[in-house]
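Handout, page 2. Input:
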Amino acid sequence: MRAGRLPLAVGLLLVAAGLAALAVASFELGPDLMRPAYLCQAGSVAIAVAYTWALAARTGGRPIVFAGLALAIGVAVILMDREVLTTGAAVATASVSAVLGVMATVPAVRVLQAAREVVIAVAIAGVGALATVGFEPSISLLRFEYTTLALALLGALGLVYRLGAGLHGLGRRGVVTVLVGSVLLAATLAYAELLRRYGTPSLVEWLFDGVRWSRANLGAFPRPLEAVLGIPALTWGVHMRARRRQGWWVCAFGVAATSPVATSLLNTTVTRTEAGLAVLYAVVVGLVIGNILIWLDLQFSGTRGRRATRAEQAAAVRPEPARTSPLL
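Output:
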């Protein structure tokens, strides 16, 4: 095995071990001696360390330093067993998972490739969700979700600032995209909060009727932030990255999808099956919206017809490092 593949193999084994520990603890598999009280948190720490290593390596940081720090904090959380520490560890794990899901993507020349990248990002965040809930944090759900989203967005924008050659690398289209994404994110969060506090009973009841119908007949209801902003941004962003580096700025808003996924299992009012279905529906709706954005982008750039599309795809060769290589 080449030296470059060894860290990847170790990371995958660490994630697998963490998932196995979480499964044994959650489903009470095996005798009691094989399920110590700290097993669930130990599994979460293993995944958190692997994800921290992967994010640092992917973004040109110091994997050993940050992974070692994550391990030290994880051991302290297990030994001290304080609510504030377990909650902080859960926030950090969810945030790292959300950012890693976006950073692990690669440029997509075609639409199906963009869909593949979305699935990979959501899967990474989904594993992070298991690690997050494994810490068993004591939380206010909305505050936890907002905190995780804010940290993930700040982290993604900070990394994209370097990957996208700073603000001067945005260009006119990039500036418009970032402004629209920011306004849409703020409007979505503000609307949900205003509706919750000040919405008229008839409007709130009408909206809740739609949610209840979807949950009763489809098994779940997709979260608007994921379906309307996060998944479309990630879909369009990876497609744009194959052509222009401004696509990284669009991808940054993909944490509006990966962050809710990473915290999806903390809601005790829904089952894990319903949480998974909600993510699935959000991916489907988001991919539809994302493909519409890609189509509009190609139309405005003058790509019309099959022949022009094939020529455009053949010319979309902006290079980026492989998925397991550092971006910087």
